[in-house]
Amino acid sequence: MSNYLRYFIVLLLFSSLFYSYTVEIKQSTIKKSLDKKLPIVIDKKGFILTLNTIELLSISNNIIESEINSTLQVSHANRFSNFLPKKSLHFTVHSRTIPKVEGTHLSFEVLSFTLNQFIHFKKVKGLLKRKIEAIKIHIKTLENFAWFASVKEINFKNNGFLNIKLEISRWLIFLLLPLFLLREIGLVIIVFYQKFLSPRKKYKCAKGELYQNGTCSSVTKEAFKKHGFIAGIKAYRASTKECKEAYKILKKDRPKYRLRDACFDIGCNGCSSPPSGVGSSSSACDFISCDVVSC
């Protein structure tokens, strides 16, 4: 049952690469959040520019057009103050901005400004741009997705909703997938070793030679199949430990096991002749124990 659950999770993670999730934000919510940030005061070079109110006019092609009521004041005497008929001037600013998502906040990139429908700035730079782009609206809904999802695209719909499409971070998926496939990965590694690497050695491990009850790789493979990755690793460690002990035994009594292995693997080619009464075509090892020195 656990295997079926693992495979279901793997399929779910893999399928999430092709799906996106949508978070909706009302236009009225954006307006309320903007109103909380106002007024914005910019004081520079003897002038104070205050952005008092903002009204969202239209949203199309992901560009927000808004109207900002602002006031320009002279903070202290300068060379321009003598030319101003009043101490303060009122401006209506027509702005075009692009919404963008940064983490869990919605911000606005300034495209252009138009003052009183006459003076048009194609590019807004400096302090004014920094102040506008510093307006950030916190999106609480994104807090639930921030740690595992990233923003794919944002679109304003005709119904006044801002749709934020999210997709699960690919790095997270590619990190989780191997965790649920450790058993299969372990089996692939063992099969590759048994098929391609082990034949090149031309001998099996000391444990298999001594006890004839399975090599380290075969024991580990069975543990992986029946009990999973963790049990397979434990079986591998226990098997390699036994293999070291078996190697010490083989090294200590090498001549004896060499003769025995010769009978099983090679045949007693060293025997001068078969026992009496036995045909010459039969092997001497079929009748004589390998522990006999004469063989």
Task: Give an account of the 3D structure.
This protein is of the alpha+beta class and 295 residues long. It has 3 domains: 2-170, Bactericidal permeability-increasing protein, domain 1, CATH 3.15.10; 181-252, no CATH class; 254-295, no CATH class. The chain is 40% helix and 28% strand. The chain has 9 helices and 10 strands. It has helices at residues 2-15, 27-37, 126-133, 170-180, 182-201, 206-211, 216-227, 229-252, 254-266, and strands at residues 21-26, 40-44, 47-60, 63-74, 88-102, 105-115, 119-121, 137-138, 149-156, 161-168. The strands form 2 sheets. Strands 2, 3, 4, 5, 6, 7 and 8 form a 7-stranded antiparallel beta sheet that branches. A 3-stranded antiparallel beta sheet has the order 1-10-9. β6 and β7 form a beta hairpin. It is rod-shaped and about 110 Å long. The relative contact order is 0.09. Mean pLDDT is 75; it is low at 258-295.
Compose a concise summary of this entry:
By secondary structure, this protein is α+β, with helices and mostly antiparallel strands. The chain is 40% helix and 28% strand.
